[in-house]
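Demo today. Your pick:
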Amino acid sequence: MSTAALRWAHRNLFAKPFDTALSVVVIPLLGWTLYAFAHWGLAEARWEVVGGSLKVLMTGIYPAEHLWRAWFSAATLCAMFGSGLGLSVRPSLVALTAVTLTGLAVAIIVATSSGAAAGAATAACASLGIGAWIAVHSFAPVRRLVLPGLPLGVAAIFAVLSPPGFEAWGGLLLSVVLTITVSILTIPFGITLALARQSRIASLRVIATAYIETMRSVPLILVVYWIWIIVPLLVPDTSVPSLLRGMAGYALFFAAYVAEYVRSGLQAVLKGQIEAARSLGMSTWSVNVDIVLPQALRVVVPSLVGQILDIFNGATLVFIIGLTDFLRAGQMILADPQNSGRTYEIYVFLFAVYFAIGGAITYASRRLEAHLARGSR
């Protein structure tokens, strides 16, 4: 083991004089940085501000008497995430142990800061996600229910969370629900745009191309704000919640990128297959649905999964329409004079959560890409 470690260090850190000099400078600097951060985190930081503000960080201003709705949504989201994980990642003993220990640690932290009931609910949510992961990977009939179950799960979350009002949604729950909802909405719209851009009908092709290029040329914040303003002008007698208007803006924006991903997949399909299908008398609809799209989507699925990370990171922009996302919830906590000196603790916690979720999405995307690559050989 030590010989292998020395060989790795020599090959990667000290192979050349410049590598050696760089390693001599960087490694001590990195070690000192990690030591200083660990000393601050363990000896100086006051993490009770995070524990005492978990409700705001997780659900924003959602009414406390309706928190059971938030727990139901959290359980549903864990089941959905575990189901998605089961499609691409094998639940090995090492992976299950790591996820179980992580879930247990989070449950203990939540129990310490918010009570035993909250800790037990967190452990139950983690168990549900792990169970969904194992079930989806192990049983083919369950695996076939994942894709139809995703929109049903989102619909259930909306139905349960909506009674207190959409404006009360906030925190990490809002960011995650927005990410999943927008991701689901953009796929059919993006596929439609991609097919329209490839259409032989000139008017459809021009409209789809103009829409895609327009959306890709403007920032997301402008589209969200524009949709938020224009919807009341189009339907003045109807009150459309800001959350739904914001989701519409996100969906319209990211659908243009989905269309480009799908279009690249369509171009990867061999033209000979399309010509052969048409020579057999198949309609344009049958050719696209039965032959072209399955192959195109197989190519672009990793890119589509990766875009979920872009949507999640972009969810912070909903503050411009008055919503309290995860980042905004942290800023609300710091606005309290009692917590004004705990800036580092709050932002380190926000960074850790964003990093954990982003890392999980990136890991799932890479594993899914590797899984699809094995299936195509």
Remarks:
- The CA atoms of residues 13 and 23 lie 6 Å apart.
- The mean pLDDT is 86.
- The beta strands are 324-325.
